Amino acid sequence: MEAKIRHMVVFNLKYPKDDPRTQKFLDTAKEKLGPITFALNVEQCHQTNAMCKYDFGFSFDFASPEDYEGYNNHPDHKQFVEEWWKTQVADFMEVDFEPV
Q1: pTM for this one?
Q2: What CATH number did the domain enclosing 57 receive?
Q3: 29-78: per-residue pLDDT in tens?
């Protein structure tokens, strides 16, 4: 099944990439967000392009707008955003793409 929406977010944390809190953040994101059944092809990435100011990225595919909405409203997603994202992310950019 081809994804209808690809949701991507690139971000920097409030502490260095080699700080133990960085790995804890990434591990927690994988643990909390990965199992949400609405999200397909969940990936965590680190930046390799020196021209980009963001260190990390998450990518998710969704089969429908309803699945994307279900993910956004899922209790595990909401909890992660409140407890981890809002407290540990310094800056970010979010994009949502649909096939042309």
Answers
A1: 0.90
A2: 3.30.70.100
A3: 999 999 999 999 999 999 999 899 999 999 999 999 999 999 999 999 99
Q: What's the structural domain count of the chain?
A: 1
Residue 20's SS3 state is helix
- Identify the domain containing residue 44 by its residue range: 5-97
Instruction: Report in angstroms the alpha-carbon separations of 85 from 1, 38, 49, 77, 98.
Output: 30, 20, 23, 10, 25
B/e letters for 81-97, b = 16+ CB within 10 Å, e = fewer, are: eeebbeebbeeeeeeee
Query: How far is residue 72's CA from residue 12's CA, in Å, rounded to a whole number?
Result: 21
